Amino acid sequence: MTFATIAIIGLGLQGGSIGLAVREYLPEARTTGYDINPAHRARAAERRLVDTVCDSAAEAVRQADLVIFCVPPGAMGIAAEQIRAALPAHTLVSDVGSSKEAIAKALGEALPDHLVIPAHPVAGTENSGPDAGFAHLFRNRWCIVTPPDKVDMLKLSELVAFWEALGANVEIMTPAHHDLVLAVTSHLPHLIAYTIVGTASDLEDVTQGEVIKYSAGGFRDFTRIAASDPTMWRDVFLSNREAVLTMLQRFTEDLTALQRAIRVGDADTLFDQFTRTRAIRRSIIEEGQDDSRPDFGRGDHEAAKNP
Amino acid sequence: MTFATIAIIGLGLQGGSIGLAVREYLPEARTTGYDINPAHRARAAERRLVDTVCDSAAEAVRQADLVIFCVPPGAMGIAAEQIRAALPAHTLVSDVGSSKEAIAKALGEALPDHLVIPAHPVAGTENSGPDAGFAHLFRNRWCIVTPPDKVDMLKLSELVAFWEALGANVEIMTPAHHDLVLAVTSHLPHLIAYTIVGTASDLEDVTQGEVIKYSAGGFRDFTRIAASDPTMWRDVFLSNREAVLTMLQRFTEDLTALQRAIRVGDADTLFDQFTRTRAIRRSIIEEGQDDSRPDFGRGDHEAAKNP
Hints:
Keywords (chains A, B): Amino-acid biosynthesis, Aromatic amino acid biosynthesis, NAD, Oxidoreductase, Tyrosine biosynthesis
Enzyme class (chains A, B): oxidoreductase
Family (chains A, B): Belongs to the prephenate/arogenate dehydrogenase family.
CATH superfamily of the largest domain in chain A: NAD(P)-binding Rossmann-like Domain
Oligomer: homodimer
CATH architecture of the largest domain in chain A: 3-Layer(aba) Sandwich
Largest interface: A-B, 116 and 116 residues
GO molecular function (chains A, B): NAD+ binding; prephenate dehydrogenase (NAD+) activity; prephenate dehydrogenase (NADP+) activity
Protein name (chains A, B): prephenate dehydrogenase
Largest sheet of chain A: 5 strands, parallel
């Protein structure tokens, strides 16, 4: 392991999980960490998310070989400026943000003399904060690394090896392509989930109690991702605006077509659309990105074992 | 138990689960069943979904005290007509369909001399067919019963007791209100999920392989419900058209507002919307309609136990 000391800035779901994963899978490495919220620092120390919780970001990075920013996309630039003076020249800078072009630019501008290789582990839960992390978050998940055009190949391979050690499969792509892929696989689903949960809260004819009670009909699947961290998601949409708006336009066109099919009673169009979406589900399960058990083991466990 | 013999017409996820649940929770009752698909009848017999798989619907209902139609909403009327001549006068007729006004009308017209009390267990998985059912599907789920204005209260209470015996909590409401509630908690989520999975399949710049690979970012949550039975869902949208279109209109307005917030960079609107949706998620978990474990126990089990 080439990174002897790893500094984690931001000790929420992602930062906490990285700290715990390093302890489990790379026990020879030392971790330091910082979070802007004093209560989160205290809790991070209690949970031992990192070996040393520091009182400033500068202190956390002073001996680091790798710094990973795990703060919301909109806070990356400011967080990077706070460590500039303290950062050793050789230290590799990375992050876990869900948009890559904007973050690459913000980190690059704040740390012009350092190598920045952004990354994005496509793994998460709806929980956030210092209690949310766990060591196995990245296992069998993809981590997308988006190196700049000119990159030290040795550093790149070290970063790839780091994520592989934490259990992730690594893929390399350009920041622009990452942002387009994630707009459809992550950002648009979150936007839609946030919307429908909001819509359901505001109805006059159906109470919120009824929405909650009968959520097992499908709605509850949306509430999980609509419970994700609001600050982070606000920043994701603002930092990946163009790709999100492009995908949203496509979605709206498709929804309008289905709306028309319902209105005019076009049974064939509905059936055809509902048939072809099944194949994608099968592929996701085959590739190990989801679980085929009914309700993913929700509810009682006998039910989960006995489909 | 007042229903000595229960006939189940349609042996898919719902019908099969009812048959298995009756054997487990009401072992003194006898079950008969029929499915229009001969291969499904054969498989139903192998799995012993009901005590006797019959070669016609008429034969299945001839000695029944309760008949439950578990066919797609659009097939209810035809299925009911097929049993009219064979149905004993005292037999109570019910169903499990996801829309209630249209089905009540179809069953009432086909069986004018019988008492019809429609019902809808709000429980399911994305699987369908004779292999999909399991005995515990209805446990701790809600079953909505929508009796007609003039109803035999004894029969109603027997139907309620039947569903409670299978583990469900029963709620009584009008068919019209049911259809409005389910439009938002089930039908709209399914429509949106089908749409986004279709949108993601048709992109030029992002391959289907990439969509599958990075689905853990949120997209996979939508694919589960978009893998539901196409025939049933086509019929649900056509039979609950007005309520679905009303809810869809509300959703589209809300989505447009968020789209504008992203376009103009209105961070406060995004943050406020994303904050208030968290509370609903908490309520759903508190009321036992979902599981708070990260990923609902998806992926490896150590991760699920160790959030």
